[in-house]
Design a protein that fits this description.
alpha/beta, 13 helices, 39% helix, single chain
Length: 437
């Protein structure tokens, strides 16, 4: 059994739904995880925002526009009246739930119910189409098995027992459909695995079912060795270690959600990134083995702020770093990069929403300076420290480009540099020319 996840663009139109159906119809009792149709979650978020502001006409207008879109999809996708009635019934239930919130105050729990409707509608459309094509598909409602603990982490024991039971109840099914992203929390309320969580859903399902492979289908033919939006001639990376994929996902490679990697890695289940529009291409395979001593890819993370705390008292001072890190922890702000010297420490953050308060507290320990509009560029590969050539190649490529920070040694798979936003594209191109050409 394999787990196949299809993102919003892959099911973003009737034509693309048919295309996905052709990929999953061979059967083999695979589990298919679907995101909401592209644009749907954004519209549902917009509706919730209007409701929070008390703008009922704005919410109604957005809801009506979304409903008209789905009415058109049903007519274009499905040929028989029976299929159209089935899909329309499921979709109207979702829109009816959203419509009910127009007449009552919105809460956080209500917002999560609204956001869950996109995945429920996409699976309803796919099941109606598969049934019309004579495929015995079984719906595995994510809200019946996907649950998180109080910590927000998936309740793997509950998920495994419930999901296996649901699958065993459908021995004649050709394929199983389920929703990505949505779940229930430890109180039983409707919740979600955050944006991009459909990848996480697929990884969790693959782990608890001990799947042969997890496939993440998008509109890109694998994880590229650089950002094709800025660098010409990029190519998909054939094979990545889980650690390499995690670094790239965290540092800007948007094709894979960072959370997706861990469950698959822990259960040693390979993840394959594939292109729905070009299913014949091999894509990128992510597993626990990879060729040694090679540089794989480059990624960039934008909107970074660097903070430097300089203090003469740091020299041989016990507890200085603890106080600095505790300050960031108190404001629930994570650190990406760090560099230290005897008189100071520099760190980077990608969330500056609490930065003013953090800086105010840090001024108790030393002089604080801030550099905004920075970018972390991450070079990923098998970067064992005994192998000296890759460090020199990275630094040679960046000759003439000001580098604010360099981070290496925390991982054998990543060397990161911090540059100004204005130097990002030049740095990406220079690294590609040096490392891959």
């Amino acid at each position: 059994m394999k787990v196949l996840k299809f993102g919003g663009t892959s099911v973003g139109s009737p034509e693309r739904i048919r295309n996905v159906a052709s990929l999953i119809m061979p059967g083999n009792r695979n589990v298919v995880v679907l995101s909401a149709m592209s644009g749907t979650t954004n519209s549902l978020v917009e509706i919730a925002e209007y409701l929070y502001k008390g703008n009922i006409p704005g919410a109604q207008e957005t809801l009506n526009g979304l409903r008209s879109k789905y009415e058109g999809v049903v007519v274009e996708l499905l040929a028989t009246e029976e299929s159209r009635r089935s899909a329309t019934g499921a979709i109207e239930r979702s829109f009816g739930l959203v419509r009910a919130f127009l007449s009552e105050p919105i809460t956080e729990a209500g917002e999560k119910e609204i956001l869950a409707q996109g995945e429920l509608m996409s699976t309803a459309l796919m099941q109606a189409y598969l049934t019309e094509q004579g495929v015995r598909s079984e719906l595995l409602p994510a809200l019946d098995y996907m649950r998180t603990l109080e910590s927000g982490e998936p309740d793997m024991v509950h998920i495994q027992s419930r999901l296996r039971r649901l699958i065993d109840l459908a021995p004649d099914a050709d394929v199983f459909l389920t929703q990505g992203y949505i779940c229930r929390n430890d109180h039983g309320g409707i919740d979600n695995l955050k944006r991009g969580g459909s990848d996480y859903t697929a990884s969790i399902i693959g782990a608890v079912l001990d799947a042969e492979e997890i496939q993440i289908w998008t509109d890109i033919d694998g994880m590229h060795n650089n950002d094709p939006r800025f660098v010409e001639g990029t190519r998909p990376v054939g094979k990545l270690h889980f650690e390499e994929a995690a670094e790239l996902a965290y540092f800007g490679a948007k094709i894979l959600h960072p959370s997706c990697v861990l469950p698959a890695k822990l259960h040693n289940i390979p993840v394959r990134l594939l292109n729905t529009m070009q299913p014949e291409t091999p894509g990128t395979l992510i597993c626990n083995t990879t060729p040694d001593g090679s540089l794989k890819a480059i990624a960039a993370k934008d909107n970074i702020t660097a903070v430097k705390i300089k203090s003469g008292r740091m020299l041989l001072a016990y507890g200085f770093l603890h106080k600095v890190f505790e300050t960031f922890e108190n404001y629930r702000t994570s650190i990406d990069m760090m560099a230290t010297s005897e008189v100071g420490v520099s760190v980077t953050v990608d969330d500056d929403s609490r930065l003013a308060a953090i800086i105010d507290d840090l001024k108790h320990f030393g002089t604080v300076s801030v550099d905004r509009d920075m970018v972390i560029i991450c070079v990923v590969g098998d970067l064992q420290w005994e192998e000296c050539s890759f460090q020199s190649q990275v630094l040679e490529a960046l000759e003439g480009i000001p580098v604010r920070m360099i981070s290496y040694g925390g991982s054998n798979y990543n060397i990161s540099v911090l540059v100004r936003r204005d130097d990002k594209v030049r740095a990406l191109k220079a690294l590609s020319n040096k490392l891959f050409k």
